[in-house]
Amino acid sequence: MEQGYRRSAGSARGEARRQALLESVTEDLAEHGLVDFSLRRAARAAGTTHKVLLYHFDGVDDLLVQAVDRLRARRIDNSMAAAALRAGEGTLAARIEALWPVLIDPRSGHRVLEQSTGLAMYDPARYAKFGREATSQYLPPLLALCPPDWSERRRTEVAELILATLRGLLLNRVIGADPASVEAGFAALLRALEREEASP
C-alpha cells in the first residue's frame, strides 16, 4: 500500500462510501472484464481518484478480490433463486438445469469470473484466492440443492462433481468452444445426475 493512505476506519459513513465505490467498480468489471484492470481505471469507473480508493481499500488486488467476490455472490444468489423455482419438481437435475441460464447470462459477469479462474492458474502465488474463494462460495449452495436424505459424503461428492463440470463448461464457453458441444456436455451432466438420483 502506498505511504500516507489507509483504509477507512470503519465508521458508518466510511463503510457506506466504501460499499458505493465497490459497487461502481464491480459494475465496471462486469461490463469490461479483467483486461487492463488497474487502480486508475477503477477510480474512473467510481468517479473518484486512485488516492480515494487507496483510503478505502488495501490496494488494487484487495479491490479486485472484493469486486470479484461481489460478482460471484450476486451470480450465486440469482442462480439459487432460479433453482428454487424448480424445487417443487423434486429432482436435483431439474434444479441444476434451472440455474444454467443464469450462469451463462452476460449480465452475471460470467466472463470476469471465468477470467479470474484463469488468473488463479496463471499466477497462483498472487491470485490463488480466486480459486479458493470460488469453491468456498459455490459448494454450500450446491450441497443444499442435493437431496437431504443423502449422506454427507454423497452430497459432497455430487456437489464437487457439479462444480467441477460447470466450471469446465463455463471455461469452454469463454475460450470459444462450439456452443453445441458445451450444451451437449451440460445435457450429459443432467443425465448423470438423473442416474445418481435413481440409484439407491
Automatic annotation (TrEMBL):
Q: Which residues form the signal peptide?
A: none
Keywords from UniProt, A to Z, are: DNA-binding
Superkingdom per UniProt: Bacteria
- Domain HTH tetR-type span(s) in chain numbering: 15-75
Q: Which residues bind DNA?
A: 38-57
InterPro entries for the chain: Homeodomain-like_sf, HTH_TetR
MF (Gene Ontology): DNA binding
- Show the Gene3D superfamilies listed in the entry: Tetracycline Repressor, domain 2
Name the coiled-coil region(s). Answer: none
Q: What is this protein called?
A: TetR family transcriptional regulator
Organism, by scientific name, is Dactylosporangium siamense
